[in-house]
Amino acid sequence: ALRFAAGEELEVARRLLARTAAPAAPAAVPGWRRLLAALRPYHARRRLRLGRQRRRWRRALEEHNRRRPGRDRVLLHAVSSSMLRFLEPLAEALGEEASYYLGVDEELLPAALGHGRRVLCGRPSGPRPRTVDDVLRRFDDHLRSLRALRPAAVVSAEGTHFEIELLSRACRAADVPMLCLQHGFHLVYEVLLPMDFDAMLLWGEGFRPMYAPFGPRTRFAVTGNPTLQPERLRALPPPAERRAVAFFLQYPNSSFPDGTYEAFVGLIRDVAAGAPERPVIVRPHPSFALPAAQGRRLAELANVAVMPPAEAPLAAVLAQSAVAVSISSTALLEAIAYDAVPVAIDLTKFERFELAYFALEESGAGIEARTLDEGRERLGRLLAEPSRLASFRPGLARLRRRFLNLPGPDPVARVVAEIRRQMEDGG
What we know:
- The protein is α/β, with parallel strands linked by helices and 427 residues long.
- The chain folds into three domains: 2-49, no CATH class; 68-229 and 410-425, Rossmann fold, CATH 3.40.50.2000; 232-404, Glycogen Phosphorylase B (Rossmann fold), CATH 3.40.50.2000.
- The chain has helices spanning 7-20, 31-66, 81-94, 109-113, 132-149, 162-174, 208-211, 230-234, 260-274, 292-299, 314-318, 331-337, 372-384, 393-404, 411-425, and strands spanning 74-77, 98-101, 119-120, 153-157, 178-181, 199-202, 219-222, 244-248, 280-283, 304-306, 321-326, 341-345, 367-369.
- Strand 11 (321-326), helix 12 and strand 12 form a beta-alpha-beta unit.
């Protein structure tokens, strides 16, 4: 767990250990216990700091909502800043009917207040869920909020976060219809078994065979991705005019062997050094900032630009990219909408690659490599022969129709229509 802990916390732990190491400490005391003991003062200070911050956030929330009266008919539930950005087109389309709903996640308040929409956030009755009792209390928090607000519908995204499962059950208990909007691509995790939403809104028809068997009570509808708006896609420069290669980093987790993150950054350096005439864009994962050491290595190359999600939306990166490279990021699927050739390099421990579902290679829409060396070699050949990029266009068009409903009706209008339909049906 510590290996994949937040970089800041781990760095603080190392510094505290270096400062507080006692030569007389018994050798029998395990290292992890000394580490936890060293972290206690840091966590105590962090709790105090968070307490002060929460009071400031609450005052800012009251002032923010005082200037933004609303009816709170549709609650747009978010569990992260990236989900807030994903739901923003719906908030704009619904106007005063919609409010952001954070459950009791006070730490998300600063990001939510920055969107200029009405924000609803209850007060937690206990700590972040770590035990079964904590989880049950969080369910009670949602149920209490829903009974007080009495919304006509709740909309969330993704479906694989435990908070969304708790909210789904609370909505059923409060007799409030809940819709889940696909946010990215995920294999069917255990938390989705069975899906318990009133409606699941899919990006494309190709996802229905994968999800539908697990939602016998759920109504499935294809709406498209609300962030992929047809008029913006039509205004993009032609693929032949784009030269950038975009790399999408992923956060280190147990699905990757040790050293995968560093090895992937090494691949980026090799590609950038081998094609100095091409701009190379590096986009860190929203949940894991690029470590300083890796950032310094990339900064040594003049054609590399790091674009964190907070500074550059995904659309801005893909709009200038001819090729998109990652391990299993959903960004590769969205790259298809921008006519950027996806290159998937399978460095996971899974027997079956997640992105194999899209059959990029068989469809003639992209490249699938099974090792880092294979990915480096095939990507190098692709960049050395730019004329090959055009050969992927027919395959990309087929995948766009199947998985992204493109070209098609305005996805925002389709999602809003499904929300209103569910409100009329009353769940």
